[in-house]
From TrEMBL:
Transmembrane regions: 6-23, 208-231
Necessary cofactors: heme
Family recorded in the similarity comment: Belongs to the cytochrome P450 family.
High-level lineage: Eukaryota, Fungi, Fungi incertae sedis, Mucoromycota, Glomeromycotina
Entry keywords, A to Z: Heme, Iron, Membrane, Metal-binding, Monooxygenase, Oxidoreductase, Transmembrane, Transmembrane helix
Protein name (record): Cytochrome P450
Binding residue positions for heme: C449
Gene Ontology molecular function, alphabetical: heme binding; iron ion binding; monooxygenase activity; oxidoreductase activity, acting on paired donors, with incorporation or reduction of molecular oxygen
Length: 517
């Protein structure tokens, strides 16, 4: 009896404290009403945008919800992210800049993903990893190598498709598998060593990325139960957490140490950077990376690369298939630049000439960004627009609503690549007048996505490879289906692929009427 009374008193005191803190919180914002322990889980689940779409009108540009006991602020207007997305050059002092650089919470230490960049709470360790991976991911040499490997893999699929008149496939599954192959080839090189099938790698990438949203949004009590009962099973199954990647790193390190020439993939490049076997691109004052650092960084990059670009390309295909005019313009440009040879290699230089393809990719990332949110935790205290925030405040920046804000974009719901084209190239030039941070598909500031250039290159390449040779038709007329699990993951996206017939006149409204295909 006494125990029940004591528990009752403790709960009463906790509830009183909880709601006292809630009703006296600074800067109260619109949002669902929270419950102790589970916060707004019942209303929001793990998908904040669904609640926002149903309950918030366009005039609300900042709102809040509760992940368990943690208050999460959701800015949806570019004006709130000026400081959060402050670039390195704009900031006078690094410590000031670092205030908005964290994404981590204590739970990640138990999961063991804190040694990479995504959830690294130690600013100096993050900076060290980030320098290594940026050096490789942003290099032109890596981009060229990436283009070559991707096209080699794509050609294998072409061979199969070209044997048939029509192929019907679930494109979301196909792209995931293709992405797993390209990513493994460019990140750790062939052969697969002791990795499982590409199919299981793509599934593991999806789970790994989804785990981030779970760890961020689920109440701590639920995460603790999961850690106790379920995490070890996940760890055993996951190629990213179970040590498989570590053993590949060790093998490659031994081989390079015993004289094998490093290949041009991310793993080999990380192994040799700042080691004696590499004279090129030395990073000042840093020791080479150890196996543990390389492991987490590779896991993050493989998973981030498969999940983001793959889903973005599904959205691109969907938007092109739904908009015949965009399809025509795309094919016209491809024909103008690549001619009728549908098998030629796409090079870095030819990609740069494709203005419409570039605009199409950028509009896809604006209209249907695969990474709609971005978590940042404030380190010190600071202000965003008129609000002042205390240390430890969580911000879930709604990149998707920022990029669809009617204040900044004309008819934002309309898919219109012309926004990203100059008048000279037939567009409206809307993008060139965009406010700072009005277009943020890759986040911004110090921890902006380091894979952004490679992602754009890959999306442009895939658009060209598909649409120069194949007709793509949606199997049904439904809207594209996707679920938010850190990335917007597309599923059940059925399309028909058939090879274009030679001599078909397809470009009639764009000056190619007399040109055979
Ligand atoms: C369309 C494709 C992609 C989109 C939309 C995207 C988007 C994002 C966003 C929004 C962030 C958070 C940035 C911030 O907090 O400001 C991010 C971070 C990151 N992305 Fe991407 N990304 C894409 C492709 C890639 C690719 C291809 C790679 C790797 C090759 C990659 C690797 C990473 C990594 C490692 C981070 C964490 C950076 C850090 O914390 O320092 N991403 N990405």
């Amino acid at each position: 009896m006494e125990i029940i009374t004591s528990v009752g008193i403790i709960l009463f005191l906790y509830f009183t404290y909880y709601y006292y803190s809630y009703f006296t919180r600074p800067n109260p914002l619109p949002g669902p009403f929270p419950l102790p322990f589970i916060g707004t889980l019942l209303q929001i689940g793990l998908e904040p945008h669904k609640w926002a779409e149903k309950n918030l009108n366009d005039s609300i540009d900042i709102w809040e919800f509760y992940a368990g006991p943690i208050r999460v602020i959701v800015p949806c207007d570019a004006k709130y992210v000026d400081k959060i997305y402050l670039s390195y050059n704009e900031s006078k002092s690094l410590s000031k800049e670092a205030m908005f650089s964290k994404r981590g919470v204590a739970i990640y230490d138990e999961v063991g993903i804190q040694n990479g960049v995504v959830f690294n709470n130690d600013f100096h360790k993050w900076k060290r990893s980030r320098q290594f991976i940026t050096k490789v991911l942003m290099s032109k040499k890596h981009h060229i190598e990436f283009l070559n490997s991707s096209q080699k893999i794509f050609k294998e699929y072409e061979k199969q498709w070209d044997k048939n008149d029509i192929i019907t496939l679930d494109f979301s599954k196909w792209i995931s598998l293709y992405k797993a192959k390209v990513t493994i080839a460019t990140v750790i090189g062939q052969p697969l060593y002791n990795l499982p099938s590409f199919d299981s790698i793509s599934r593991a990438a999806s789970e790994y990325v989804a785990m981030f949203a779970f760890l961020v949004f689920a109440p701590k009590i639920i995460i603790s139960i999961f850690m106790f009962f379920g995490f070890n099973t996940i760890k055993k199954e996951s190629v990213f957490l179970n040590g498989t990647i570590r053993s590949i790193i060790q093998k490659r390190r031994d081989k390079i140490m015993s004289g094998s020439t490093p290949n041009f993939n991310l793993l080999d490049l990380l192994l040799i950077t700042n080691s004696s076997s590499n004279s090129e691109g030395y990073i000042e004052g840093e020791q080479p990376m150890n196996d543990e650092e390389i492991e987490t960084n590779l896991a993050e990059i493989i998973a981030a690369s498969i999940e983001t670009t793959g889903n973005a390309f599904c959205f691109l295909v969907y938007n092109v298939a739904k908009n015949p005019l965009n399809h025509e313009k795309l094919c016209a440009e491809i024909f103008k630049i690549f001619g009728s040879d549908t098998n030629s290699m796409v090079t870095y230089e030819t990609l740069e000439k494709c203005h419409y393809v570039d605009a199409l990719v950028k509009e896809t990332l604006r209209n249907s960004n695969p990474v709609p949110y971005n978590l940042r935790v404030l380190d010190g205290d600071d202000s965003t627009d008129k609000f002042h925030w205390s240390p430890g405040t969580w911000f879930l920046i709604d990149n998707q609503r920022i990029m669809n804000n009617p204040k900044y974009w004309n008819e934002p719901m309309k898919f219109n690549p012309g926004r990203f084209l100059s008048e000279e190239h037939g567009g409206t030039n809307e993008f060139s007048n965009m406010c700072k941070n009005g277009y943020v598909p890759f986040g911004g500031g110090l921890i902006i996505c380091p894979g952004r250039n490679i992602a754009i290159i890959e999306l442009k390449l895939l658009a060209i490879l598909f649409f120069r040779k194949y007709n793509i038709e949606l199997v049904n007329n439904e809207s594209i289906k996707y679920v938010y699990r850190t990335a917007n993951q597309v599923h059940d996206f059925m399309i028909k692929i058939s090879q274009k017939k030679k001599n078909n006149i397809v470009y009639n409204s764009f000056g190619f009427k007399d040109q055979p295909y």
